[in-house]
Fold this protein.
Amino acid sequence: MKETKNSIVPEPKETESKEETLNGDWKRELTPKEIVRELDKYIIGQDGAKKSVAIALRNRWRRQQVQSDLRDEIMPNNIIMIGPTGVGKTEIARRLANLANAPFIKVEASKYTEVGYVGRDVESMVRDLTDLSVTMVKREKAEEVKSKAQNLAEEKILDHLLPPKPRRKKAESSSKDSESPTFSFTGTTEEDPEEKWEKNREKLRTQLRQGKLEKRNIEVSVPNDRFPVIEVFSPQGIEELGVNFQEMFSGMLPKKTKRRKVTVGEAQRILTQEETGKLVDMEEVISESLERVENSGIIFIDEIDKIAGEKPKEGPDVSREGVQRDLLPIVEGTNVMTKYGLVKTDHVLFIAAGAFHASKPSDLIPEIKGRFPIRVELDSLTADDFIRILTEPQNALIKQYMALMATEGVKRSFTDDGIDEIARIANLVNERTENIGARRLHTVMTTLLESIMFEVPSAKIKNVKVTRQMVQKTLKDIVEDEDLSRYIL
């Protein structure tokens, strides 16, 4: 195989060790340069956007270090990312969510409607963020008590596998304590029933931990989660009230359990989950979750350009200017009622993004523009960018296809000129038809490798080399026919 310009080699050990550190508290203390470096592993170019989101993310941590009297006065600098589709706006948000050890949610502005119209109101994005935060904190707390919960579940399973511990009678107990050990007629010492029971329990414990009892069936009591659905309001009405009626009614009614026959392996999962629920303090979880949302929450609003422009008098977009006006108080700072309590949005960071093909950023109402002081323009991608996208990122498209083919025992390789030709064709089709950015690479690669992906596994196909000649031969007719390339590529 010919060496490519960007040879696909394993990452150095230093990078691996740093990624391991990302699983700890280091996430909270990433410097802007380190954030950009992490984003560079997956996104090519767009340095301006990366710097802006890196500074905004770091400022969340910086604000927490400021004196309390000044801390409340420091407001987040909300960002608008402007750029054509497929240049990395959504990908930056997705990767940022993995880096930020904070509640993060991505929403589409076009999904919301003005209050009074049928659809979701903009406050629901804050409720969704709160739900996500509760889930995140609950998972962390569950991890803290995981070991204890597993031990308690193990004891319950052993109770099911072994008969109850034998009890001594008082008279028998006192006489045995005073007398010497008894011997049977054969001359061997009689084993104490309690000691024998303890030995059997420890033997079963060892077998359980070694996985030898996984397939054995036992009966366990599990909570009966079935609850009658009572529709008092429409889903939207309940959401606006911020009340969870199911939880409210389930707290009033006695909890029912049912007996289920399951394997020991399944019982371990069920009982560990049950014990975890008992050990985790939900009041503490909710309190910490609300604090995280208010001080570290990030909301990424995609497709904000779809609610910009003049207000139409009729049609599906009749309420889009109203959505902007409803968005104003949330971005500026207000109290939103959720089922866990009031959430203040004063310090939630908002990052908006839009292609602005049919509208301009100036079409947004002035109040919204003022709430997003930082604007970053993302560049359109070129053929050179496509070459880098195909080879450099950790999740590069070529690496993905090589991994997929390896599962079928096929070794795939790409030459330099083959990669150049794929990038050239993707760029050419973008110029001739609609420019969909890096997403064009997916359609080109899928069309290019379709026949091979269909044929394997096959004894005849063990090595596949993608060269310029192969790319041109496979895609030539489609590229030359502009009408055909519009629908296939």
The longest strand covers residues 217-223. The chain has three domains: 27-135+290-377, 136-162+201-287, 383-483. The two ends are 28 Å apart (CA to CA).
